[in-house]
Amino acid sequence: MTTDYFGLKSKIHEALPERLIEGHPTYANARSAFDEVAARYKRATAAFAKSNQIAAQLERSIERLRSEDWPEREEAESFARSMM
Fold this sequence. Notes:
By secondary structure, the protein is mostly helical. The protein has three helices and no strands.
């Protein structure tokens, strides 16, 4: 059984391109690059979720402020329009 395993393993290694064999420098570099991309994707996804949360809070605040009657409202709205 053991010799069959090692025989099969050596045949697989012979058939595979070197860059796909674990331990080969190219494989290690590719794995490192993949891990870095995965980490960046995770951070970007978290940042995107946080920005969506902030945007939702701002939308709720805008609706609340529009529904309230406050004396400086017109002045604040004209200022906000001038900033756009």
